Amino acid sequence: MNSSTGKPTSDNQDAATMVALLEAIGSGDEHTQRTLATRMGVALGLANALLKRCAAKGLVKIQNAPARRYAYYLTPKGFAEKSRLVAEYLETSLHFFRGARSQYEEAFAALAARGIHRVALVGSGELAEIALLSASSAGVTVVAVIAPERNIASFHGRPIVPDLTAARVLKAEAVAIADSQQPQTVYDSLRRDLPTDRIVTPRLLHVTTTNPAAERENAA
Question: Which single residue of 90, 101, 154, 191 has CA 20 to 30 Å from 179?
Answer without folding.
Answer: 90
